Amino acid sequence: MKLLEDRIRRDGTIKAGNVLKVDAFLNHQCDVALFNQMGAEWARLFAERQIDKIVTIEASGIGIACITAQHFGNVPVVFAKKTQSINLDGDQYVSSIYSFTKQREYPVIVAKRFLSPGEHVLLIDDFLANGNALHGLIDICQHAQVTIEGIGIAIEKGFQEGGQKLRAEGYDIKSLAIVKSMDPEQGSIEFEPCE
Length: 195
Description:
It contains 5 helices and 10 strands, in the order αββαβαββββαβαββ. It is an alpha/beta fold. The protein has a single domain, classed as 3-Layer(aba) Sandwich (Rossmann fold), CATH 3.40.50.2020. The strands form 3 sheets. The protein has a 6-stranded mixed β-sheet with strand order 4-3-7-8-9-10, sandwiched between helices. Strands 1-2 form a two-stranded antiparallel sheet. A two-stranded antiparallel ribbon has the order 5-6. The longest helix has 14 residues. The relative contact order is 0.17.
C-alpha cells in the first residue's frame, strides 16, 4: 500500500536494533483517515472470506481493528487483554507471548463468551516481526475452535522470520507494507512489493 509506505518514509523513525518507530500516526497518535484506508484495503484483500469477528491484541491493534471492522459490515472486535483484572470474569482463554518492544513475556486473555466455536475471524495487528503476538492469538483461536480466515498486518518486517513462518504454517497474511531493509545510520528504508 503505497500510501502507508510513503507515510512510513515521511513520519517514521528508524532506530538501532531493528526498531521502526511509527508512533506519530500508527501506534500512539492515530491517523484515523489512514486507518480507514487500511481497513478498506483489507476488506478488498479478504473480500471472498466470511468474517464474523475481528480479533486483535491490546493496545496498538485496537484502533486499527475497530476502523477495519466498519469495512466488514460492522462486525464485533475482540481484543486480547494483556493483564488480568476484576472485570475479566468467567471462563477465559489464556496464552503467553514475548514482546519484542517490551522485552518481556506476558499473558494474553480473551473471555470465552466472546469467541464461539465455528466463528470465522480475521486477525489484525500493527506489526509482524517474529510473530510472537500472532502465535498467542492463534493459540487462543485454536482453543476457541474458531476459523482464522486471514491475518491483516499494517507493517511487516520482512527481514525477520515471523511472516515466513506463519505463511509456511498455512496462514493467509496480507501485509500493507513489508519492510525489506532499514538503515538507522542513513535513515533509509526499502520495501518489498505487496499484493
